[in-house]
Amino acid sequence: MVKGINGYAHLVTRLILGFIFVMHGWQKVFETGTDRVAQDFDAMGVPWPEIAAQYAAWVELLGGVAVALGLLLPVACVLLIVDMAGAIYFAHLDAGFWTSQGGYELPLALIAGLAAVGFAQAGTLAVDHFVYKKVKS
């Protein structure tokens, strides 16, 4: 296998995941509003719904940007995995597996993608590669 292919696969995966999370965070912050998200979270039984809404909105928005850039990948991915685990537990678990029925299929797939990019070697096309390269020097 060509060595550079892994870096491109990692980049494409990061860009897609990052885009998904940025769009969801953008929706929570700028379209729906975090007050409404907090109301929805409260109705679902999410503890501390105001704090959880801020966490979900900003982690998705800023974490999505970080994932797309390849910046602080382990940290960003863990924060987003926690976000998706909460989504599965509070919003999707009772609906079963299938996304078409409101289930946890999509958040589970996002967790898999986050684990893959968050704990794999970042590759030369990630900001982390340049940051850690300079730190090692």
UniProtKB/TrEMBL annotation:
Keyword field contains Glycoprotein: no
Subcellular location, principal: membrane
Entry keyword annotation includes Cell membrane: yes
Family: Belongs to the DoxX family.
Location(s) in or outside the cell: Cell membrane
Membrane topology: Multi-pass membrane protein
Transmembrane segments: 6-26, 61-90, 110-132
InterPro entries: DoxX (IPR032808), DoxX-like_oxidoreductase (IPR051907)
Keyword terms, alphabetized: Cell membrane, Membrane, Transmembrane, Transmembrane helix
Name of the molecule in the record: DoxX family membrane protein
Organism of derivation: Gordonia pseudamarae
